[in-house]
């Protein structure tokens, strides 16, 4: 299986790290610096949060203004409905903003939030 690296432009990598650490995420120090932090989703998926200037080195396109546009929806699976609720409630308490209303389909439950830089995160639980 290939490893996935999701790259996001952020205003302040240290601030983003603090936000996601408060939600229980860990970081890979080997790929972290003042210009970027590497958040671990699992053994095969990471989120690189790159300071805006550093992020601009990786694209010829303009950087999305996440206050008015959505560049990506980042889905993250959770072990339970309660874990989804806890993650979204924690994100909002830590300074994130609510995104979409909770969606309960019985066998699947999802909710979403915007992080400090306006990236749209969608924690979801599905029955196994």
CATH class of the largest domain: Alpha Beta
End-to-end gap: 21 Å
When the domains are counted, the total is 2
In the CATH hierarchy, what is the architecture of the largest domain at level 2?
Roll
Number of helices: 3
Give me the Rg, rounded: 15 Å
Largest sheet: 6 strands, mixed
Helicity level:
10-25%
Order of helices and strands: EHEEEHEHEEEEE
Low-confidence stretches: none
**Total number of β-strand segments?**
10
What would the CATH topology of the largest domain be?
A: 2,3-Dihydroxybiphenyl 1,2-Dioxygenase, domain 1
Strand content: 25-35%
Overall average residue pLDDT: 96
CATH superfamily grouping of the largest domain: 2,3-Dihydroxybiphenyl 1,2-Dioxygenase, domain 1
């Amino acid at each position: 299986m290939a490893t996935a690296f999701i790259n996001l432009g952020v205003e302040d990598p240290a601030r983003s790290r603090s936000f996601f650490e408060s939600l229980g995420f860990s970081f890979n120090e080997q790929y972290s610096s003042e210009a970027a932090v590497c958040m671990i989703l699992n053994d095969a998926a990471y989120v690189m949060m790159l300071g805006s200037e550093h992020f601009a080195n990786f694209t010829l396109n303009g950087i999305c203004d996440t206050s008015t546009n959505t560049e990506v929806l980042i889905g993250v699976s959770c072990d339970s409905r309660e874990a989804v609720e806890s993650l979204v409630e924690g994100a909002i308490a830590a300074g994130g903003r609510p995104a979409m209303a909770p969606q309960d389909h019985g066998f699947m439950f999802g909710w979403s939030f915007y992080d400090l830089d306006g990236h749209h995160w969608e924690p979801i639980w599905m029955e196994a």
